[in-house]
Amino acid sequence: MAAEKNQGNRITELFSIEYPIIQGGMIWCAGWELASAVSEAGGLGIIGSGSMYPDVLREHITKCKAATSKSFAVNLPLLYPDIDKHVESIIELEVPIVFTSAGSPKIWTSKLQSHGIKVVHVVSSAVFAAKSEAAGVDAVVAEGFEAGGHNGREETTTMCLIPSVIDTVDIPVIAAGGLYDGNSMLAAMVLGAEGVQMGSRFVATEESSAHIEFKKTVLETGEGATSLTLKELTPVRMIHNAFYRKVIEAYEAKASKEELAELLGRGRSKQGMFEGKLDEGELEIGQIASMLSAIQPAGKVVSDIVSQYREAGGCSLGKRFEF
Amino acid sequence: MAAEKNQGNRITELFSIEYPIIQGGMIWCAGWELASAVSEAGGLGIIGSGSMYPDVLREHITKCKAATSKSFAVNLPLLYPDIDKHVESIIELEVPIVFTSAGSPKIWTSKLQSHGIKVVHVVSSAVFAAKSEAAGVDAVVAEGFEAGGHNGREETTTMCLIPSVIDTVDIPVIAAGGLYDGNSMLAAMVLGAEGVQMGSRFVATEESSAHIEFKKTVLETGEGATSLTLKELTPVRMIHNAFYRKVIEAYEAKASKEELAELLGRGRSKQGMFEGKLDEGELEIGQIASMLSAIQPAGKVVSDIVSQYREAGGCSLGKRFEF
Q1: Cβ(A208)–Cβ(A217) below 8 Å
Q2: What is residue B1's predicted lDDT score, i.e. its pLDDT?
Q3: Which of A51, A283, B193, B246 has its CA 20 to 30 A from that of B111?
Q4: Residues of chain B that touch chain A, judged by Cβ-Cβ distance less than 8 Å
Q5: A100-117 per-position pLDDT tens digit
Q6: Mean pLDDT, residues A110-132
Q7: Which structural domain, as residue segments, surrounds residue A141?
Q8: Measured between alpha carbons, how far is A219 from A175 in angstroms, rounded to an integer?
Q9: pLDDT digit string (tens) for B110-129?
Q10: Do B182 and B233 fall into the same domain?
Q11: C-alpha B143: how far from its chain's center?
Q12: Is the pLDDT score of B3 beyond 70?
């Protein structure tokens, strides 16, 4: 059920933030520099813990808290091998909000909430949104097929997913996938979302810890130049680089699941996104990369989105749209 | 370049219609009954000529003109084998608007326009939108990955495609794919479109010539229950029925392109959509089928969309949004 038109925005309230603009907690890109910059600008910054060893995450949380007194979050992939240590750090260092993904929200939600932490789960279908609500999460991110990185097998796009999730759950819904500016933010809010999460747009910021060569490649990525592939393993959207072409060759040679896993190997995303190995690495980004044209400060990104949203008349459409 | 915020809506003006709501010219579903009902209700109805023999199309155009004095259109797939005969009928019977698809708009655009016919081309990428504009078409339909039936190979979703096409061409853009109600219509307009084309929503109307068993199946289609497949031939989005499962088995058995073509055979969509053979047939529909819950009169669909759009505050966002 959508929020009532005249009900205030529940996402800004839930997170104690100024604007319902959330920066995705992307591996290799979202460290404390990016998260704190977004939070300082009035959005919600998220540290991506999926690519961090436990002691690295502790360091990022500590530095983020030193850099901003505002709300921030940690993204926690529930299949992370050392998850107990991550959860321990999150609780001990008093992270106020956790976005969980890639796994069942049943296991950790109540434990985190018992420490006063708000929990949001990322889903790619209305079925998982309903399961997440039943598990007691405070909100869901509904992420469409066009999003970068790991994604659902159902291939439901943002335009179709948001109304479906809105119809299914009562908790607030954050839209993700294909969103990058004030107009697309407003489009997602019109579909019923109360906030937006943007990943690709924040990869191309000065504070993103992605390798500069990866950032430049993102800016050069044209329409149709990414694909969701490797569905036999974990579906992932990546740029059509040399490694991607090897994946396609493997499919053409009718490779087995095991052969695909061997081809993928380990550390592909680190090589591509953090070390700037543009040929060997896996370059994860969303379809909307085709609309990006500059590497900007994260705070400027937030304020530009807010200006464009207001200019488009967003705040005039009802209390849910106001900030 | 998007239309200026304070410029009037160019789609209602171009087609001389009341609302910029266009019913897709779908094969086996969009005959004169549906097209005339949509046009009578203030939208633009389109006869889908792709599934019609030349004499059948003549009959549908004649009956449509008898049923409504308002604007209507014919959808013309440019790969239609007997295209000269279709074009002859369109000109002779004074069809005011033609939507072309599946082929190059270079060949027929100027001929049709020389007879006073408005020409709109359906595209799935900004590159093809630019080529269409260069070919002189009056507007484009930008159709995202989530749409039903035949579709582009690039898999660009509506949320990503619309801003990209808006940035690329100066002619007005009609959005398609994943749109079904007043909110999704407004979302598409916020992204820069000046009109919307809806297919799946109009399949599930009383006037649609689809088989009643296909219409019922559309209403039962859940989220994630369609896929874009057969990309080696012509990519097509269909429901996961028995025929679809045979396609998947063929892929698992590493079928060649020739074997896939043999499996598809001829007349699959007619069997499924017109004859109601739900197992053997190809059931083409968009992802948004999951949101449909009733078979309604087409005129009621149009008026409900208009009411919801207005209720959402659409008309307050600028002259381009007004009708």
Answers
A1: no
A2: 53
A3: B193
A4: 125-127, 144-146, 153-161, 163-164, 167, 177-179, 181, 183-184, 186-188, 190-192, 223-224, 227-228, 254, 286-288, 290-291, 312-313, 316-318
A5: 998 999 999 999 999 999
A6: 98
A7: 10-209+293-321
A8: 23
A9: 999 999 999 999 999 999 99
A10: no
A11: 8
A12: no
Query: What is the pLDDT at residue A5?
Result: 56
Mark whether B107 and B19 lie in a shared domain: yes
A223 closest CB neighbour out of B164, B291, B312:
B164
B243 and B277 in contact (C-beta within 8 Å)?
Answer: no
Q: Give the mean pLDDT of chain B.
A: 96
Q: What is the dihedral of CA A312, A315, A317, A318, to 10 degrees?
A: 170
Among B144, B164, B191, the residue with its CB nearest the CB of A183 is B191
Strands, DSSP E only, in chain A? 21-23, 45-48, 72-77, 97-101, 118-123, 139-143, 149-150, 173-176, 195-198, 226-229, 236-239
Residue B4's pLDDT is what?
Answer: 60
pTM of the model: 0.97
The total number of residues shown for chain B amounts to 323
Average of per-residue pLDDT across A296-322:
96
Name the nearest CA neighbour of A31 among A62, A77, A6: A62
Check A188 against B191: CB less than 8 A apart: no
**Chain B partners within 8 Å of A181 (Cβ):** 163
Q: Report pLDDT digits (tens) over A225-248.
A: 999 999 999 999 999 999 999 999
Answer yes or no: do A32 and A52 share one domain: yes
Residues A123 and A263 in one domain: no
Nearest Cα to Cα of residue A99 among A143, A59, A161, A65: A143
Within 10 A of A94 (CB to CB), how many other CB atoms are there?
11
B87: pLDDT strictly greater than 80:
yes
pLDDT for residue A138: 98
Interface residues of chain A, partner chain B, Cβ below 8 Å: 125-127, 144-146, 153-161, 163-164, 167, 177-179, 181, 183-184, 186-188, 190-192, 223-224, 227-228, 254, 286-288, 290-291, 312-313, 316-318
Task: Identify whether residues A129 and A44 lie together within a single domain.
Answer: yes
Task: Give chain A's mean pLDDT.
Answer: 96
DSSP B19-79: S-EEE---TTT--HHHHHHHHHTTSBEEEEGGG--HHHHHHHHHHHHHH-SS-EEEEEETT
Same domain, A265 and A120: no
